[in-house]
Design brief:
Layout (H helix, E strand, L loop, with lengths): L9 E4 L9 H12 L8 E5 L5 E8 L2 E8 L16 E4 L1 H9 L17
Parallel strand pairs: 1-2
Antiparallel strand pairs: 1-5, 2-3, 3-4
Amino acid sequence: MLSVGAAPRIWLCTEPTDLRCSFDGLSVRVKQHLGEDPLGGHWFAFLNRRATQIKVLGFEDGGYWVWSKRLERGQFARLHAVGGGAKRVVCATEFLALLEGVDVEIKKRRKRYKIAA
């Protein structure tokens, strides 16, 4: 079971990815294509070209982990990056909606109170 509450930030690669690769291939894609550090504790989600499979790469104390889901029918929603980039930050709610097959398009974010760190 995937516990989303533990992820500080979830990055979604908005371009199709060859998901035959695993730990090393996905970590290289994070570094070179997304420009992020795969060891930073964030999660990185990738969809295949047909949007029928998703892989999530993460790093915890001691090593990488990869989580995968393949749909037998239907497709995952294609979320687009703001400004035409290759990545997009998704919140836990958007990520869970993506996994459950719900099309979520946020047109405007409402202000929420946050405690300044």
